[in-house]
Amino acid sequence: MKLTRLLQIAMKSLEKTETAVNIKAPWGNLTALTWGDALNPPVLLCPGRMEPCTAFRPLVLRLPNSFFYVALDLPGNGSSDTLPLGVRFSVQDLVPSVLTVVEYYKWKNFIFIGHSLGAAIGKYFNLAYPGRVTKMVELDPIPAYNTDVDMPIEDWYHYYYGNYYKEDSYKKHNAGIETAPKYTLEKIKELVQSVQGLTDEALKHQLERMIEPAGDGLYRFTYDQRMKHVTLLPFPSEFLKKIYTAPTTPTFAILAEEMVDLGAYDDVPFLRDPSAWPNKNFRYKIVPGGHDVHLNDPGCMADDISQFLLENKSKL
To answer: Is the pTM higher than 0.85?
Structure first.
């Protein structure tokens, strides 16, 4: 049987199992989508900022059906409740969302796949709870390798905190979706396309949990406005190298060629130097496309990720 036919069968079998779930967290509800048999080895997928769990659907449906996939809506994204309004939050404040899912399913170990901000969250979870993540896939993980190397602490502070607590900014970020601007569906699509450059198919998955009807045929975005600037700590490259290369977790990074060409990873040369990882547990691949290539063109990475997931599967 040809590989294409096997892939089609796997996609259909996973597609039929898609289930929406609600998970109770101390601050409210976390929502997610699952695919596959819950008795199979678990894979947790964590999206980027302002990205719903549905953005993982095209990729998941191209992965092996011998795993149980759970794609999370981060707080204030998709259908999940926001973290308590008021204060600005950081990447570290989003790590408990991962732990909440892990404890809900009573997983002892699991595989982690994170895109962008989601990769940063996974990195910190892996450092805080060593041994729980058996493998990690990083999809264009720019925020995880943020250094702000050229930004003075003064500027960094005012960018993330000083400006946030000015009256107008504070009201905007904490007013709730009821006050969000309203747009026609076509305008919504235009706004998202101008930022992400998605295909029509990708846009459908992205918008599924990103907007809601606002009356009179108009729509509004539902994400927490604070997600636009989740605080990233200005760690130097050498510090990131020290903490990231220490774990023994097998890690596979997918880097978007357009982001590499823009210099997104120039300040962290160890990321593209497998010899810098003393445990010999790191590999990477550069694929054609932009930051959301996992959504726009999952086929360019699905086989490589599948192979990585299946390696030593009996030990999971």
So the answer is: yes
